[in-house]
């Protein structure tokens, strides 16, 4: 005898029972979804519900999904299958055979054979008839059709709904454009600092928030204009001006005058020599504080969010804290100079972007 069922035909019965359970759940949830869809459609006549017809489809889809979940939860149990099989004219042969499955007596063996002959004599799967109410399916179709029909009525807020739909469509369009612009800036201008990229991303998030809060076309256009102005501001920073501010500050101190001259002449050999001497001066004379003050002075002449200001600010803080040794500071300055070289080399294209 099978470990789970006393006859293999009971597996097909269980599958049909399971299918019928899902069908009942499907019809029930579709009818409930149809009622909810009609309710939402009626509400859309009095309150702004953008893209209501799409929401109606979502409601029906959710009902179908819930029926699948219900079918998984309501899987027919073994005892239920056995009792159902006996109710099809087997007169408790199946359930008796199951209780006697461990009995090896001749009487139990005769009972099992009798059960098998009785089950083989009927088409148990076809004989099983589930009480499925197809009226629920018809009700669901009628309710959904009514909901769709009502959604075409203009209602009291028809104009406001159309405006809101236009705003949402424009919002998605502008979000896509801004994201493409952000990716374009990353690809075309690798010299952009992490701070600038973060500001661009934050600006995109602000645009989304402003559009979500917008209730009129005027509010949405205002948010869009703010975003465009912010992007222009970020793209207007000239790295050459930042470089000039840095050179002017470095030139004002004997400690960094040679480094300023090397930057002005863009001479690699002079830069390496100046960095080596600066590292030696810091080690011997402890001039980290003076270097920090020079960098802070340069930072004051750079606009917030400029291409080099973040790097200069971090370098000044590192020198002022005294946590970094002279070699680390020299390495940071070297990285800053590399950023300067990249930024000034690509500044023209950046300005034209």
Quick structural summary:
Helix content is 78%, strand content 0%.
What is the N-to-C order of secondary-structure elements (H for helix, E for strand)?
Answer: HHHHHHHHHHHHHHHH
Number of strands: 0
Biggest sheet overview = none
Report the helical percentage.
over 70%
The N- to C-terminal Cα distance equals 79 Å
Strand fraction equals: under 5%
Rounded mean pLDDT is 77
* Helix run count: 16
Q: Which stretches are poorly predicted, pLDDT < 50 over at least 5 residues?
A: 346-353
Oligomerization category of the chains in this entry:
single chain
CA gyration radius, whole angstroms: 38 Å
Shape: elongated
- When the domains are counted, the total is 3
Computed structural class:
mainly alpha
3D structure, described in words:
The chain is mainly α and 353 residues long. The protein has 3 domains: 143 residues, no CATH class; 78 residues; 114 residues, no CATH class.
Blueprint (SSEs and pairs):
Layout: H1 9-43, H2 52-73, H3 78-90, H4 93-99, H5 106-120, H6 124-127, H7 134-151, H8 158-188, H9 194-213, H10 217-235, H11 239-251, H12 257-265, H13 268-285, H14 288-300, H15 309-321, H16 326-352
Helix pairs in contact: 1-2, 1-3, 1-7, 2-7, 3-4, 4-5, 8-9, 9-10, 11-12, 11-14, 12-13, 13-16, 14-15, 15-16
Can you tag this structure with a few keywords?
elongated; mainly alpha; 78% helix; 353 residues; 0% strand
């Amino acid at each position: 005898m099978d470990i789970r069922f006393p006859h293999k035909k009971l597996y097909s019965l269980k599958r049909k029972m399971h299918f019928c359970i899902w069908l009942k759940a499907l019809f029930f949830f579709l009818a409930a979804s149809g009622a909810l869809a009609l309710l939402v459609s009626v509400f859309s006549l009095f309150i702004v519900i953008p893209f209501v017809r799409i929401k109606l489809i979502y409601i029906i889809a959710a009902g179908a999904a819930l029926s699948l979940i219900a079918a998984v939860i309501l899987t027919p149990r073994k005892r239920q299958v056995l009792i159902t099989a006996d109710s099809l004219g087997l007169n408790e042969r199946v359930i008796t055979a199951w209780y006697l499955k461990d009995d090896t007596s001749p009487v139990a063996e005769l009972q099992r054979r009798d059960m098998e002959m009785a089950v083989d004599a009927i088409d148990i799967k076809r004989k099983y008839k589930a009480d499925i109410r197809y009226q629920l399916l018809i009700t669901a179709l009628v309710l959904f059709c009514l909901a769709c029909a009502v959604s075409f009525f203009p209602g009291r807020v028809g104009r406001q709904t159309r405006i809101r739909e236009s705003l949402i469509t424009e919002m998605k369009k502008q979000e896509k454009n801004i994201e493409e612009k952000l990716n374009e800036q990353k690809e075309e201008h690798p010299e952009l600092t992490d701070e600038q990229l973060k500001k661009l991303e934050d600006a995109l998030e602000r645009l989304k928030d402003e559009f979500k809060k917008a209730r009129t076309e005027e509010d949405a256009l205002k948010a869009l204009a703010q975003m465009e102005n912010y992007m222009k501001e970020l793209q207007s920073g000239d790295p050459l001006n930042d470089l000039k501010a840095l050179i002017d500050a470095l030139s004002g101190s004997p400690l960094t005058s040679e480094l300023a001259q090397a930057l002005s002449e863009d001479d690699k050999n002079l830069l390496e020599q100046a960095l080596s001497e600066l590292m030696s001066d810091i080690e011997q004379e402890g001039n980290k504080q003076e270097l920090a003050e020079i960098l802070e002075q340069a930072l004051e002449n750079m606009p917030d969010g400029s291409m080099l200001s973040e790097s200069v600010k971090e370098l000044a803080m590192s020198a002022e804290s005294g946590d970094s040794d002279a070699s680390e500071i020299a390495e940071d300055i070297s990285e800053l100079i590399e950023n300067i070289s990249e930024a000034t080399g690509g500044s023209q294209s950046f300005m034209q972007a």
